[in-house]
Amino acid sequence: MNLLLLAFQTVITGANLAQPIPPTDYSCRLEAVDGARFTLSGRTPPFPVGFDANASLPAQIGGEGMPELIGEARISPGHASDYFREFQLSTYRPGGRHYRVSLMLRRDGTSVAYATIFVENDRRIPYDYLAAGLCTSNFDSAG
């Protein structure tokens, strides 16, 4: 019997950005797994041509209702085009807690976001989903 082993990683190979990513405004309404509702909002920083997509820049997350996700964060770009932009915002809190908000933004129409917490456990997947929701975005933010 042959065994095929696959390893998944979040490192993007050949990851220098080929085009700049201008600032993008976002505003999201999310619902947590316990039914609590909260908001997140902010503006992404500009990412220049050649930026290493595996690196991050400082960012601020605004909002109300889930303090673990609000405040100082680090942001990394994912896929970006004239119509779609993906970002990951990470916050690190006391006690080694690491939270991530994934933004999947569209120029036109409704966008989505979801939040996770990385936890130490004996499962194969080291994170739990916290919340998911819908967002609006503005790709034409003044820099």
Topology:
Blueprint: E1 25-32, E2 37-43, E3 57-64, E4 71-80, E5 84-93, E6 97-106, E7 111-118, E8 127-138
Antiparallel strand pairs: 1-2, 1-8, 2-3, 3-4, 4-5, 5-6, 6-7, 7-8
Features:
single chain; 143 residues; mainly beta; Lipocalin; eight-stranded antiparallel barrel; 0% helix
What does this structure look like?
The protein is mainly β. The protein has one domain (25-138): Lipocalin. It has no helices and eight strands. It has strands at 25-32, 37-43, 57-64, 71-80, 84-93, 97-106, 111-118, 127-138. The protein has an eight-stranded antiparallel beta barrel. A hairpin with a 3-residue loop joins strand 4 (71-80) and strand 5 (84-93). The radius of gyration is 16 Å and the shape is globular. The N and C termini lie far apart (57 Å). The relative contact order is 0.22. The model is unreliable at 1-12 (pLDDT under 50).
Radius of gyration: 16 Å
Global mean pLDDT: 87
Distance between the termini: 57 Å
> What CATH architecture do you see?
Beta Barrel
Question: In sequence order, what are the helices and strands, one letter per element?
Answer: EEEEEEEE
Gross morphology:
globular
Structural class: mainly beta
What is the domain tally? Answer: 1
Low-confidence segments, given as residue ranges, are: 1-12
Count of beta strands: 8
CATH overall fold name: Lipocalin
- What's the CATH C level? Mainly Beta
Strand content: over 45%
Number of helices: 0
Oligomeric assembly: single chain
Biggest pleated-sheet summary: 8 strands, antiparallel, barrel
Strand numbers in spatial order across the main sheet: 1-2-3-4-5-6-7-8
Helix content: under 10%
